[in-house]
Design goal:
Blueprint lengths: L2 H7 L2 H8 L1 E6 L5 E8 L5 E5 L8 E4 L3 E6 L4 H5 L9 E6 L6 E4 L3 H20 L2 H16 L7 E2 H10 L6 H11 L6 E2 L1 H11 L3 H10 L5 E2 L1 H10 L7 H12 L3 H5 L3 E2 H9 L24 E6 L15 H9 L4 E7 L7 E2 L9 E2 H11 L8 E7 L3 H15 L26 E4 L17 E3 L2 H4 L16 E3 L2 H4 L6 E2 L5 H7 L4 E6 H10 L1 H10 L2 E4 L13 H4 L5 E4 L6 H10 L7 E3 L25 E11 L14 E8 L6 E4 L11 E10 L6 E8 L7 E9 L6 E8 L5 E15 L2
Parallel strand pairs: 12-23, 13-16, 16-17, 20-21, 21-22, 22-23
Antiparallel strand pairs: 1-2, 1-7, 2-3, 3-4, 5-6, 6-7, 8-9, 10-11, 12-24, 13-14, 14-15, 18-19, 25-28, 25-32, 26-27, 26-29, 29-30, 31-32
Helix pairs in contact: 2-4, 5-6, 5-8, 7-8, 10-11, 11-13, 14-15, 15-16
GO cellular component, one term: plasma membrane
Keywords: Calcium, Cytoplasm, Endoplasmic reticulum, Glycoprotein, Hydrolase, Lipid degradation, Lipid metabolism, Membrane, Metal-binding, Nucleus, Repeat, Transducer
Cofactor: Ca(2+)
Length: about 750
């Protein structure tokens, strides 16, 4: 491997990890068992097994880790704090929805080595460029296939490896490539020769063809030829000379080509596989939108019953669920608070068997993690079932723990005609709850403090969420202290759009069940869009979704609803759409709505998009060319996928459609489709495009292989790669699709 890798291996902390340590794996107060952990030769894989067990062992890659927390920084280690000193303890945090690994070392010294070692390896993994990442990937495969660990690979081992890599190749072709790579004629490949074999294997004819179309001599693209390609195919206008030079500088591996200001096929392929060659427009990746408009003008990434890690009836309530949602850019989290037995309010899903956590612990977690992924405001949606005494305790916790971070007064000089902007509220947490009176009459002490409760139930549909004792408990006392902390997000009942038009205040917001919102969107779409230009609305899943399944958020975004709350813990189509919409604008959790949804007099309705001013439908044409190194779905030794690609459009009802390619038999490594799918999109400003790859199965449901979802307005046209994500939303390099995209007006 390269010198960089050997430098990492010489690091004293990494050496401790390679030598191995016995660490205690802790799952609960009663489950704590010693396991032998060590870092493998590749410098990336951590291997562990129980000391006594026979063959069984587990491994995970450093690339799956997001961070290391030191000391008692997880609920599990906090619960065993008396038994294990903080300087022996650490927590490995994985990306996505995978649970943490809580570990205890025998000494502070050993814990230190693992904490620092893993951090260095995470940093190294995160800073690898495309080429190093590919080299690492090839090295990993070599390690996996070199069964007898002699550092060489014979043809039999190579055949096995091809199966593992999802390649069904006839023996003759494989042997031909093997012989070409085996320059010494020894009948086996060492790592360098194996890299050469891999290059021969991954030569991509479809990229070579595009290269040939623009290259005069078939060997390289001169500056002018590359410019030509960028203008004609990638639709990049005026700045293509400058851009062509930058691309050569960034992606061309050969120095002699660089000196000539030219690009070789290797460089061309690297550019096409890079972020700049990806389907997602890099200019929309960072923060690019105007953040100074009223809060009601943005879609806001929002979570439902944030405290749950699993289902709604028996699931574990956990602080980790808040950390995970906030790290994913979620900007509206929810708390269901109930009276605790010892005067401390607790949070859980009332009237169910979900476990309980302390309200104050959630607020501390919020304080620590609220602004790690984004510094735009977080809305804390409080569903309050506590009596007055414990409401006072909640108010104390909010004020003491959050301090200045909690917005408890109007912003200076703020007119109450419209809500403040995300920009003005940076770094602030806003409480959404019931309030006595309005923001204007904070000082009027004579107001009554009777306020109805059970918000989700009161605004739901009777059939959906029948409150257990709705008649008895429709009024409950609200503590003045808690009420005073509510400023811009006062929860109120919804009395119809007419009432809101004449009486509604911009800081008043209502919650709607998914079915009520859907009905309003269908029957009175324009009214809903207008209402949402000025006031916030929150949508929540039906009470019948006890399995934490989600509804399609697109129906709600179509009428401009800002806070469309989803169960973040549940992977699938709905969270793919949420991740897709919020992948733009720096993943900050706020996306500016299209201009026709920000104008109070708008006539837009999703049911009839052609009636709005500025209506301009577009034609989207996607040539699905090929796939690269798709992961295996079935881990059985001989199985290889039969992939197909489906393109799904989500948007206004007229735009909801899908189409798919045929399937390719037995090729997950480099399937070629060369099929074109065509769509007409009536409201591109609201549309999301989802690419799904599945393993075709004629007898049962197709298996999911990978997906990528992005807003229509973030698509780059031309020859592009789509880097696929797992069901959990994590990257699965180097799996990708190669496509050619054109977007044109509908004439």
């Amino acid at each position: 491997m390269d010198s960089e890798s050997s430098r990492v291996r010489d690091d004293p902390d990494v050496k401790v990890m390679m030598a191995g340590s016995t660490l205690r794996k802790v799952k609960s107060r009663s489950w704590k068992k010693p396991r032998h952990f060590r870092l493998l030769e590749d410098g990336l894989t951590i291997w562990y097994k129980s000391r006594w067990a026979g063959k069984g062992h587990s491994t995970f890659s450093v690339t799956e880790l997001e961070a290391v927390r030191e000391g008692h920084q997880s609920e599990v280690l906090q619960s065993t704090a008396e038994e294990f000193p903080a300087d022996h303890c650490f927590t490995l945090v994985f990306h996505g929805r995978q649970g943490n690994l809580d570990l205890v070392a025998d000494s502070p010294l050993e814990a230190r080595a693992w904490i620092q070692g893993v951090r260095k390896l995470i940093h190294k993994a995160q800073t690898m460029d495309e080429k190093e990442r590919l080299d690492q990937w090839v090295w990993d495969w070599f390690q996996k296939a070199d069964k007898n660990k002699d550092g060489k690979m014979n043809f039999k081992e190579v055949r096995k490896l091809l199966k593992m890599m999802n390649i069904d190749m006839n023996e003759e072709h494989a042997l031909h490539l093997f012989t070409m790579a085996d320059r010494s004629g020894s009948g086996s490949l060492e790592i360098e020769q194996f890299v050469h074999f891999y290059k021969l294997l991954t030569q991509r004819d479809e990229v070579w063809k595009v290269f040939q179309d623009y290259s005069g001599d078939g060997e390289k693209l001169l500056l002018e030829e590359l410019e030509n390609f960028l203008k004609m195919e990638q639709q990049e206008g005026g700045w293509s000379t400058q851009h062509a030079l930058e691309l050569i500088d960034r992606y061309e591996p050969s120095d002699s080509a660089k000196k000539q200001g030219a690009m070789s096929l290797d460089g061309f392929q690297m550019y096409l596989c890079s972020q700049e060659g990806s389907i997602f427009n890099p200019e929309h990746r960072g923060l690019y939108q105007d953040m100074s408009q009223p809060l009601s003008h943005y879609f806001i990434s929002s979570s439902h019953n944030t405290y749950l890690l699993e289902d709604q009836l028996r699931g574990q309530s956990s602080l980790e669920a808040y950390i995970q949602a906030l790290k994913r850019g979620c900007r509206c989290v929810e708390v269901d608070a109930w009276d605790g037995s010892d005067g401390e309010p607790v949070v859980y899903h009332g009237h169910t068997w979900t476990s309980k956590i302390l309200f104050r612990d959630i607020i501390s977690t919020l304080k620590e993690y609220a602004f790690k992924a984004s510094d735009f405001p977080v809305i804390l949606s409080l569903e309050n079932h506590c009596g007055v005494e414990q409401q006072k305790v909640m108010a104390q916790h909010l004020s003491q723990i959050l301090g200045d971070t909690l917005l408890s007064n109007l912003l200076d000089g703020q007119m109450l005609q419209q809500l403040p902007s995300p920009q003005e509220l940076r770094g602030k947490i806003l409480l959404k709850a019931k309030k006595i009176g309005g923001v204007e009459d904070c000082l009027d002490e004579t107001l009554t403090d009777e306020v109805s409760d059970e918000e989700e139930m009161a605004n739901g549909d009777a059939a959906e969420d029948p409150p257990a004792d709705s008649n008895k408990k429709s009024k409950s006392k609200l503590s003045r202290e808690l009420s005073d902390l509510v400023v811009y997000c006062k929860s109120v009942h919804f009395h119809g759009f007419e009432h809101a038009r004449s009486h509604g205040k911009c800081y008043e917001m209502s919650s709607f069940s998914e079915s009520k919102a859907k009905r309003l969107a269908k029957e009175t779409g324009t009214d809903f869009v207008q209402y949402n230009t000025r006031q916030l609305s929150r949508i929540y899943p039906s009470g019948l979704r006890t399995d934490s399944s989600n509804y399609n958020p697109q129906d709600m975004w179509n009428v401009g609803c800002q806070i469309v709350a989803l169960n973040f813990q549940t992977a699938g189509l709905e969270m793919d759409l949420n991740d897709g919409l919020f992948r733009q604008n720096g993943c900050c959790g706020y996306v500016l709505k299209p201009d026709f949804m920000r104008d109070g007099n708008t006539r837009f309705t999703p049911e009839k998009p052609e009636e709005r001013q500025g209506y301009r439908p577009l034609r989207l044409s996607i040539q699905v060319i090929s796939g690269q190194q798709l992961p295996k779905v079935n881990q059985k030794e001989g199985s290889i996928v039969d992939p197909l690609v489906r393109v799904e459009i989500y948007g206004v009802p007229q735009d909801q459609t899908k189409d798919e390619t045929s399937h390719i038999n037995n090729n997950g490594f480099n399937p070629l489709w060369n099929e074109t799918l065509n769509f007409v999109v009536h409201t591109p400003e609201l549309a999301l495009v989802r690419f799904v790859v599945e393993d075709y199965d004629k007898a049962s449901r197709n298996d999911f292989i990978g997906q990528f979802t992005l807003p229509f307005k973030c698509i780059q046209t031309g020859y592009r790669h789509i880097h696929l994500l797992s069901r959990d939303g994590r990257a699965i390099p180097p799996a990708s699709l190669f496509v050619n995209i054109t977007i044109s007006g509908l004439t």
